[in-house]
Amino acid sequence: MSNMNRRRFLKTGGAVLAASSLPLSLVEVAFGKSGPEDFSFAYLSDSHITQIKGKEFVRNWDRGLIRAVAETNLLDPKPDFVFYGGDIAQLGKPEEIDHGLEILSGLRYDKVHYVMGEHDYYLDLGEHWRKRLGPDHYSFDHKGVHFVVLNSILTFDDWTHKDWRSPMQRMKAMARLDNPKGSPFMVGEKQREWLKQDLGKVDKTTPVVVFSHSPIQKIYKGWNFWTDDAEQVQALLKPFKKVTVLYGHVHQIQYNQIGNISFNSAMATAWPWPYPVSFTQKASYLPKLTVAMNRADPFFERDATGWQFVNMTTGRVDVHYVLPDNENRVVAFDEKLGHPVDTRYQPLTKRIAPQTHY
Amino acid sequence: MPNRNKTRWYVPLCAATLCGALTLTGATADEFTQADLERWKTQYNIVVAKGENLFHGGLQNKNTVSCDQCHPNASNTHPETYPKFQQQLGRVAELWEMINWCIMNPLESQPLAADDAKMIALQAYIKQERRGVKLDPGRH
Asked: What are the phi and psi torsion angles at A29 (to 5°)?
């Protein structure tokens, strides 16, 4: 999408959203509370920067991140900050994390928030990542919204600390998505206790946005489109009126609504993953709400990859998927229906053939 | 017609040779035992395992990108739909040609011959992961 198109897109989209959100703002004022301000942020994820040797890196994955950074810099109006959804690296090497961060340093933004991905973690258990980027779970407030960052890619200690030949053997075991000897992701008791304390200080009417790498919902365990203690994390989020979970890992468009919690995924800048339905040997649970992205055309290197910008309007999320070599998509929370919808393709009659995965 | 004479000699000779060979091995074309079935299945499984290994980084291509990075469990390869019109090539293509396309592009490596043991192993793994799905050649 050209810059001019994006500007037009943003302006038009913003106007429509402002108009539709007006009655809700009035209700909040009537209750004597000032609602959260509208703002936007950019959201990049899953670059999987891969070192071949020395200063040589896989060109394709580099190009994906370079393009996403360049386009994010062109956004107008400029978002307040950038989120990165995890998996900067492919095999967790310091060289890969450093090279990825060098590309990301091209972002002309004051603040970039990072989420830990399994590809960043399982070589040195996150040591280099934390050295460069700080803690892997924390919270902050921005314009009336409470943001929480979680490390959701932990697993059983027995698996992490079993008798591996080397840390790289462990990393490669987790990097293989379809590894039958893999281990499920989880937030873990320690972080859940922290989250409970953190959320205890937040007013229940404050919109909450949670960032994780894996979906805090259960879609397909075989590829870790899954968080093992998802229900326990969801229970902590239940008392809040407006909650959104934004996640990476799945390299595809997914969205869902479970009770009060909206879920939206991010595209990868590197490569797309198939929907679990296309692995016919096991059952999977893609949310019914999700209108799939188009099937990838491998002859276009960036097809079915992408990045996002997110508008936060009265505490709800509209995810704008920027999809090279493809039509952009918008998944926005629908106040009347009470869940996210694709603004163009949600009705069954509007679906198109390339969205069929088998 | 000199050719006919030649043929007449050739056929009995050939039949005699075949009979000899069959007698030596004790094989009868339309009979096989449970042990045969198990051996053949084992041979097949060995090739599938080899294919699984090649699919997950065993091709030793320089850029280290592997098939499973885009195709976990060989999904999104749709082996049951080949041969089919491949719009990007503008002609009907077979699965092995598309495997080579991936080897040459994202994997930045050299294509394999159609009858290369590695190519056969890759297809064995891909089809094993798709077992039970009905043939649907030509489907996009």
From this structure: -60, -40
The rounded distance, in Å, linking the Cα atoms of A232 and A241 is: 17
Span A7-36, average pLDDT: 42
For residue A47, give its domain range. Answer: 39-347
A329 burial type by CB count under 10 A (0-12 exposed, 13-18 middle, 19+ buried): buried
Q: What is the mean pLDDT of residues A346-353?
A: 97
Judged by CB atoms closer than 8 Å, whether chains meet at B76 and A222 is answered as no
B54/B122 Cα distance (integer angstroms)? 7
Q: Which of B56, B62, B68 sits opposite A52 (nearest CB)?
A: B62
Binned at pLDDT 50, 70 and 90, residue B27 comes out as low
User: What is the count of residue pairs from A and B with beta carbons less than 8 Å apart?
Assistant: 61
Question: Is some CB atom of chain B closer than 8 A to the CB atom of A30?
Answer: no
- Interface ipTM: 0.88
Tell me the pLDDT band of B9, cut-offs 50, 70 and 90. very low
In this complex, the residue of B64, B72, B102 whose CB is nearest that of residue A223 is B72
Alpha-carbon gap: B63 to the closest alpha carbon of chain A (Å): 6
The verdict on A64 touching B (C-beta cutoff 8 Å) is no
Residues of chain B neighbouring A93 (CB-CB closer than 8 A): none
A284/B contact by beta carbon, under 8 A: no
Classify B90 in phi/psi space as left (phi over 0), alpha (psi -120 to 50) or beta.
Answer: left
The pTM is what?
0.87
Q: DSSP readout, A186-208?
A: B--HHHHHHHHHHHHTS-TTS-E
B131 near A CB under 8 A? yes
Query: Looking at the complex, does the CB of residue B120 fall below 8 Å from at least one CB of chain A?
Result: no
- Cβ–Cβ gap A281/B131 under 8 Å: yes
pLDDT tens-place string over residues A125-137? 999 999 999 999 9
Band the pLDDT of A162: cuts 50, 70, 90: very high
- The beta-carbon neighbor of A280 closest among B63, B65, B130 is B130
Within 8 A of B131 by CB-CB distance, chain A residues are 281
pLDDT tens track for A299-316: 999 999 999 999 999 999
Categorize the per-residue pLDDT at B29 as very low, low, confident or very high, splitting at 50, 70 and 90.
Answer: confident
Dihedral sign, CA of A310, A209, A237, A269? positive
Q: Which CATH number fits domain B37-140: 3.40.50.10240, 3.40.1390.10, 1.10.760.10, 3.40.50.2300?
A: 1.10.760.10
Confidence of residue B24 (pLDDT cuts 50, 70, 90): low
Structural domain tally of chain A? 1
CATH code of the domain containing A192? 3.60.21.10
